[in-house]
Write a structure and sequence with these properties.
The chain is built from 17 helices and 22 strands. The protein is of the alpha/beta class. The protein binds nicotinamide-adenine-dinucleotide.
Length: 484
């Protein structure tokens, strides 16, 4: 099969380059297991080159006015929009995500560039009335060179939307795309090369163990922003601490609760539960409400409706606009999901639907699993505690509000959560007691530009998607002007 991208190079210092090793990694379509492209197998040497280019570029970038930087960022957004359809096709083939919702990813990236382009004017310091006779002020200064390490579920969106704040603050960035879905980064390399000054935006492809680790251990890249699994996040914190004092922010996984009260219509909750599971990304979304906690009065009515809705999901070619769910991203993800099916056998849970690979010749090749629902789930079961990052919904039941809150908080995670009730006191009471960083009342899944997103407990450190994210790419400098 022909490659889906013309470019097979990364971006360093404004040049489209192969890696120092000259080696490549092949990328496969998770729906067919066909090779659809290749990306340079980056090395430590490539990271060093990217650092040198970024380090040379950032002072000039930081010296621009916020309006000038903003104009370049908006031009970058326009250039992305011009190639949005091409990016979409590459992303669908390389990730397995379904085409219809994936259409939003470039738009979100562009909106984020636009938002932070405008926010650059808010990079203000303070005047502090510490003494009457002197002047005490703070300035916000960029770190200089910062890095973004991205996961496989929305590769281009994370590479752009989650570097916009750093660019607005005057930093040059190094992006490390996910190794199982790196191909949209090849298109991004071409676009960023045209739109931004050389060295301001660099992309180094390759494995986490080599390129990711080289970034984390680079003594002069002080600001590392990571989106990925808790295990990798902790490894990054450890590795970073071994070489230098660093500012590491982590957006990690979740095992997020959706708590439904008995005043809710079972149809509404069933629809919300299926939407909140993000089956369109095969459940591969950190914010998925993968634990459905139902009050016992509506438990059976909701559960049967959830099963009906899951049974109606159309699994198949992710490039077909009518498809509801594609394959999971990689063989590793596939095997991980299957291992959850195995451990659930005999653990006391009740398999309601799914729990295996789909049958039929269409599914003989590719990383397919059925959308799955387990009922009678309880704390202590693996599926209750561990993030699957796959299409498995776990359902439990509760009687009192205290019980619901205790169940919601009974995992190591604390990323998102949803509360569904029309009683505002119950809704706020529960939302305040759930130890998660991002709650919805009568909603789920949505992110809102400018509204902070991030996790408590082992779901992360730091908040992104708002003004706080931009400030996190600056260091405050205090100046005391002695006037007396
Ligand atoms: P992962 O942790 O396996 O990999 C993420 C990135 O880290 C990849 O680019 C990988 O190459 C790199 N990496 C791996 N080992 C590394 C190392 N030792 N040093 C430096 N970099 C390394 O995660 P994944 O499987 O790509 O993504 C799934 C995870 O991401 C899930 O846990 C999911 O919940 C999480 N996620 C979180 C958010 C959020 O906003 N909180 C969003 C999307 C995904």
């Amino acid at each position: 099969m022909a490659y889906v991208t013309a470019c097979d190079r990364m971006l360093i210092g404004g040049e489209l380059v192969h890696g120092a090793s000259g080696d490549f990694d092949e990328s496969i379509n998770p729906a067919t297991e066909e090779v659809i492209g290749r990306s340079p197998q980056g090395t430590r040497e490539d990271v060093d080159r990217a650092f040198a280019a970024a380090d040379a570029a950032w002072p000039t970038w930081a010296a621009l006015t916020p309006s000038q930087r903003g104009a370049r960022m908006r031009a970058f957004g326009e250039a992305l929009k011009a190639r949005a359809e091409e990016i979409l096709q590459v992303e669908v083939a390389d990730t397995g995500n379904t085409v219809t919702p994936m259409r939003g990813d470039v738009g979100m990236a562009v909106e984020s560039l636009d938002y932070y382009a405008g926010l650059g004017h808010e990079l203000k310091g303070e005047t502090i009335p510490a003494t009457a006779e002197n002047l005490h002020i703070t300035l916000r200064e960029p770190y200089g060179v910062v890095a973004r390490i991205a996961p496989f579920n929305h590769p281009l969106m994370f590479a752009v939307a989650r570097t916009a704040a750093a660019l607005a603050a005057g930093n040059a960035v190094i992006v490390k795309p996910p190794e199982t879905s790196p191909l949209s980064a090849m298109v991004l390399a071409e676009i960023a090369r045209e739109a931004l000054p050389p060295g301001v935006f660099n992309i180094v492809t390759g494995s986490g163990a080599t390129v990711g680790d080289a970034i984390v251990r680079h003594p002069d890249i002080k600001r590392i922003a990571f989106i990925g699994s808790p295990q990798t996040g902790r490894a990054i914190q450890r590795a970073a601490a071994e070489v230098a004092v660093k500012h590491v922010t982590l957006e990690l996984g979740g095992k997020n609760p959706l708590i439904a009260f008995p005043d809710m219509d079972p149809d509404v909750i069933a629809a919300a539960a299926v939407r909140g599971m993000n089956f369109t990304w095969q459940g591969q979304s950190c914010g998925s409400t993968s634990r459905l906690l139902l009050h016992e009065d509506i438990h059976d009515a909701v559960l049967s409706r959830v099963v009906e809705r899951v049974a109606a999901l159309k699994i198949g070619d992710p490039a077909d606009p009518d498809t509801d769910m594609g394959p999971v991203n990689s063989r590793m993800q596939h095997d991980k999901v299957l291992s959850f099916f195995q451990t659930a056998r005999g653990d006391g849970s009740r398999l309601m639907i799914g729990g295996k690979r789909p049958s039929g010749t269409r599914f003989e090749r590719g990383f397919w699993v059925e959308p799955t629902v387990y009922a009678d789930m309880k704390p202590g079961m693996r599926l209750w505690q561990e993030e699957v990052f796959g299409p498995i919904l776990s359902v439990g039941r509760w009687r009192t509000v205290d019980e619901a809150v205790a169940l919601a908080n009974s995992t190591e995670y604390g990323l998102t959560g949803a509360v569904w009730t029309n009683d505002i006191r119950d809704a706020l009471n529960v939302a305040r007691r759930v130890r998660s960083g991002h709650l919805w009342i009568n909603g789920c899944s949505s992110h809102f530009l400018g509204v902070p997103f991030g996790g408590m407990k082992n779901s992360g450190v730091g908040r992104e998607e708002g003004i706080e994210e931009m400030f996190s790419y600056t260091e405050a400098k205090t100046i005391n002007i002695m006037l007396g």
